[in-house]
Amino acid sequence: MRNVRKVRYIVGLVFLLAGAVLLLLPQYEKMAFQAKQEKLITAFEQLGDWETAVLADGELEQEEEGEYVIAQDAKGVLSIPAIELEMLLFDGVNVDALNNGAGIIEPEKKMGVQNVAIAGHRGATYGKQFNRLNELKVQDELHVKMGQEDYTFIVDEIFVVDQKQVDVLSDKESPYLTLVTCTPIGEENPTDRLIVQGKLVNGEEI
C-alpha cells in the first residue's frame, strides 16, 4: 500500500512539473524572442560604431560579432505600437530572415513609393513575431525605419485571402505597406493569409 502511494505521489509530482513547464515555456519563448530582437535592433543601430571598432582594433567579442553579422544584413526596422512589436526587416522570406525578424517579399520594391509587402511568422507564444497582427484595427500606425528615412503608414484594410491570391502584393495608386502572415494561428500548413494594409501618410495629417 505504501509503495502504491509513493508511486502515485511521484506520478502526481511529474504531472505537476510537466504542467508548470508547459505553462512557463511560452512565456520563456516570448521573453527570449523579445530579448533577441532588442539585441539585434541595438546591433542594427550601432553598426557604424562597430565598423569603427573593427577598423580600430580588428576584432569584436564573439557574441557581438554574431549580432553584428545579422544586423549587417538587416534593411530596416518595423515597429507597430498598438501591439508593442519591433522587428528587424530582411530581404526575402528565407528561414534565416523569418527566424531573425520579418522578410520583405519583393526586395526590389522601393519603400514609400510602391506597395511593399512584409511577411512574418506566427507562433504559439503570445506577443511573438506576427501572432498579434489580428489585433490591429483600422487607423493603427505602422512605422518603418530604413537608413535615414522614417515611414509612417496608417492601416486602412484588414482581411483574409487564400495563399494563392497574390494580387494583394500589386502596387496601388499610392505607396502602401502590406503585412502578411498565416491564419488561423496554430494550424498546421494553413492555406489562408491574414493581410494588413496601410497607406503612407508621411507629411499628411494623421
Structure explained in plain terms:
This protein has 206 residues and is of the alpha+beta class. 35% of the residues lie in helices and 29% in strands. It contains 4 helices and 8 strands, in the order H-H-H-E-E-H-E-E-E-E-E-E. It has an 8-stranded mixed β-barrel. It starts with a helix and ends in a 6-residue tail after the last strand.
What's the short version?
The protein is α+β, with helices and mostly antiparallel strands and 206 residues long. 35% of the residues lie in helices and 29% in strands. It has helices at residues 2-45, 47-57, 62-73, 95-100, and strands at 74-80, 85-91, 102-104, 115-119, 141-146, 149-162, 176-183, 192-200.
Q: Strand sequence of the main sheet, in spatial order?
A: 1-2-3-4-7-8-6-5
Q: SS-based structural class?
A: alpha+beta
Give me the number of helical elements.
Answer: 4
Mean pLDDT: 76
User: DSSP strand (E) fraction?
Assistant: 25-35%
Number of strands: 8
| Helicity level | 25-40%
Give the tags:
alpha+beta; single chain; 4 helices; 8 strands; 35% helix; 206 residues; 29% strand; eight-stranded mixed barrel
Describe the secondary-structure layout.
Elements: H1 2-45, H2 47-57, H3 62-73, E1 74-80, E2 85-91, H4 95-100, E3 102-104, E4 115-119, E5 141-146, E6 149-162, E7 176-183, E8 192-200
Parallel strand pairs: 2-3, 4-7
Antiparallel strand pairs: 1-2, 1-5, 3-4, 5-6, 6-8, 7-8
